[in-house]
Amino acid sequence: MTPTDFATLPLDPALLRNLDSLAYHQMTPVQAQSLPEVLAGRDVIVQARTGSGKTAAFGLGLLHKLQAQRFRIQSLVLCPTRELADQVAEEVRTLARTLTNIKVLTLCGGVPIGPQIGSLEHGAHIVVGTPGRIEDHLRKGTLNLSTVDTLVLDEADRMLDMGFQPVLDRIVEHIPSDRQTLLFSATFPPEIESIAQRIMNQPVRITVEERHDERSIEELFSPIDGLSRPEAVRLLLLAERPNAALVFCNTKQGVKALTQHLNQNGLNTQALHGDLDQRERDQTMVLFDNNSCSILVATDVAARGLDIDAVDLVINHEIARDSAVHTHRVGRTGRAGRQGKAITLFDEKERFKLARLGDSLTIEPLPDKGILTQPPYRAPMATLQIDGGKKQKVRRGDILGALTAPGGLDGQQVGKIHLQDLRAYVAVKRSEATLALEMINKGKLKGRQFRARLVR
């Protein structure tokens, strides 16, 4: 048994059994360094990138100390976005599978508050939410945090970027001062130090420097050589033809202009930036995850908190403003044992900026410009939106059954299914989209008819 085995930790045996069943045997660096301190009850500040395994680090800590027979809110996890809150809540539920009757409740904006009030009346052990919606419930008197003994701030720097510092301070006033506080952040700006001094008690500081595996990521730097940046991006996409590409721009305006250029030239592209409302954000991420949109163009702030594994190609539309952001961008590809490529565009006037990114960079010219005349490629999947979800008791099996009924699709032609409260999204092979629509619109789910439409 190695020092990084989960079995070396003084965890609840039920949690260890579940970790074994999930094939979670070896801790990631962030887990190995932080979990002993978390289990010891200390306040902890962890600086680590997205995708480092931090959710399990704090999730196991709060589940280990949780008293299931005490049906009160014992842990509060604050996240900057609804997507991250949903991801965290789902992972905590998975980690808690072998514990008895643990209730995890998600409280986020972008959805009606009434059903959340009803859920709170039935109680919960763990609440995962966004600061704005948590404050809404506190103001209405529908949320009581007086029994919380663990507070987690996940992606704390992102919450501060979004202007949540005053809201965080007001929320903390409702939580007992003798709690344990865990703060996770990809970067450590002065604002993080300030909030840590106000709300934490002698925190242990842990910094996890995880270098990219050079064997899994090929990193290149390419001069745009007389092309506009949008043309250079399109050239790379046509040459590489990735299933999933993430393109980073430094500004919202850059995201919008590049997305428009790529779509006008026939490439399935979605934008992710701060001007999108929650419904638009949710749908964008579903389309990208479903592989019915091959290209996601995003700002760094909008992409923070998203756990996206299967990215083949990262393109930096322009050089990031600092080396830490560049490293974070490149680390979006080559994950989970996959191979990946990252290409950064620059013009000759910017060559001096490359020095801050390393000494031995691989400079490679762009592919032949004649590739720009090639026809665009299309994403392999199409996504259908069904006007029924969890609230209507629709399950993934119901959707799969309706699509694969006699005369319908083969099961291999159906991709990912995302269930939300009032709607569902299902990916199907693009060539079968018309048949899939017919199977849903003319068939039945749960004995009822639901309307479906093609989203992309």
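The above is record 1. Record 2 follows with the same two-line structure.
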Amino acid sequence: MTALYYALGVLVFAVAIMLSIGLHEFGHLIPAKKFGGKVSQWFIGFGPTVWSKRIGETEYGVKAIPLGGYVKIIGMLPPGAEQLVEETTVDAEGRQVHRVRKSNTGLFTQLISDARSAEWELVGPDDADRLFYKMPWWKKVVVMGGGPMVNIAIAFFIFTGVFATYGNPTDRVLEPVVSSVAPCVVPFEESGRECTAEDPATPAYAAGLKPDDRIVAFNGTEVGDDWQLLQDRIRANADGEADLTILRDGVEQTVHTNTTVTLRPKSLEDETLVQVGFLGVTPEFHIQTGGPVYTLGEMGGMTVDTVQALVQLPVKVWGVAKAIAGVEERAIDSPVSIVGGGRFAGETVSHEEFLVSEKLVYLLMLIAGFNFFIGMFNFVPLLPLDGGHIAGALYEGARRGVARLLGRPDPGYVDVARLLPVAYVVGLAMLVMGVVLIVGDIVVPLHITS
């Protein structure tokens, strides 16, 4: 049964990601068609075609390798300005097509020329006014930004639904209410083991603190609902006396004890062990809930974290490569591929200790997180990503706007084809990183219990 649940989790995740990719591509297709552009293909996946159907002028289909998707918008690349040779030929279906070639001898310039030629093989005699590169710059931004914005919108709606009902699992509000009392002081490096006769009792246990006791004040300082303030006071108290004002069963009383000194991490961000005062209680917590405004705030923080992660991505992937080679352990915060995401989904659904509600929430958060990252990643201003085309369109709009202000001639369309060498390098880097992460998720996988 566990294997069946695992497979179910992987299947749900895979289907959700494929649907997200398809919707991403519709985010390009729909505005492109609305603006009069011609879209010849809409596909999920790459490689050999598994299934396709032509509706109107667009072929919709699925390919064998489900690692992405694409739409083919006619006229993405403008014809070059120098040494152009235009040819009109007839394709296998009897349609007239235009070819645009550029005579050159350089490697990169030849690649650009071949790309233009391949692009214009799809352009028919009636497509002159429907070419993508001729669209106003702002329409290009809408078309290219539509795809990643769909992913971000999917993430927003999933996050909003989870946060408004279950709450945000990553936003736990700690309260100065005793959830549990540790019976003994166990050295941090031995955390998790049972108490022995040699272990001293914790101050909280010795003082008789009980679950549901609310700590109102510590050594005369009221802490209100602020667990962090209480924790700071305890840590700073070292092995000094501690007078606790507690509320038990609606009755306020004072408990006298002494905190003890033990080694604990400096903070959640800094694991350096330092000597601090220790009481021995675990606080209660509740999960923060919120609606659309709360979700937007959380996604703002996610945006900052994602940008930082993207900057560090090559280094993190290199770390995964070293883990594959056995040079070092794989970092728990290393990136994962869709294979790793599927593993997380399978382990979540098959985990026997998780409640059904917790499994559903984790799956939804995983799907939303992948969508958010896909959307943000596609906004990186480098070809062949959507952000590279957006950057070119914005540059075109700025250049034309400046020319108008200065009374200069229209500088014309931005030729993104000249950046194709960069696109090839970036595309190769993306391919290598993707392969490394997939291999890493198979050879040295991360687990939800890591």
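The chain has ten helices and twelve strands.
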